[in-house]
UniProtKB/TrEMBL annotation:
It comes from Bradyrhizobium vignae. This is HAD family hydrolase. Gene3D superfamilies: HAD superfamily/HAD-like, Putative phosphatase, domain 2. Keywords: Hydrolase. GO terms for molecular function: hydrolase activity. The keyword Hydrolase applies.
Amino acid sequence: RAAALIFDVDGTLAETEELHRQAFNHAFARHGLDWRWDRAVYKDLLRVTGGKERMRAYHARLGAAPPLSDMEIAELHRIKTAHYAELVEAGCCPLRTGVADLLAAARARGQRLAIATTTSHGNIDALLSRALGKRWAADFEAVVAGDDVSHKKPAPDVYIEILARLKLDAAACVAIEDSANGLIAASRAGIPVLITRSMFFGDDDFTAARVVLDDLSDLGTAKQKTEKQPHA
Ligand code: XBP
Ligand code: MG
């Protein structure tokens, strides 16, 4: 059994990416930009992790000159983040099936909990305050967000930082992820990965994962689905 479970947020704890997508579109409209990201475009853009990085990549892809300034990107991202929080606070994004039970079971058996994500502390707090209550952070020993490190996923930085804070070896942990970028990030840090398939990343390449599940309620039956042992 793993000493610690390290959770990704977007797509893993909740299907947040559809809300992120709506929040981006809201920001574009508010800012007077004629960009609109439909689901197909967004699915492709999700290969770029980080909201600011995603907007820059899209702008570069359009070949539009001059590039958006850092200030404009920051302003768009500020509007996007505020609208995302409103959507989450309105109750648009419950935890995925099995998440609350897994968190409770892990706590009961003494497993340590952590979060390694690309999104911001503000977004994590908006989501988990609503889903788990204002004191959610008391259950997580370490929370590392994208802007806490030099390189976002698929770089291993967030996971390496979590291991340092928990003072645990990679092999003693399990990372729970929903995307190929997340799988690569955790794998580069040496951490075994359990995948819970999500809306946008369901068909990613998960060959390197220990276990691939449709959602976390399947955890108890994982052994029948794969010959490899689920460590969670
Ligand atoms: C999540 C992301 C984030 C969100 C948007 O990846 O890539 O960029 O889409 O959040 P992961 P921000 O699930 O691997 O952490 O706009 O706050 O970046
Ligand atoms: Mg994710």
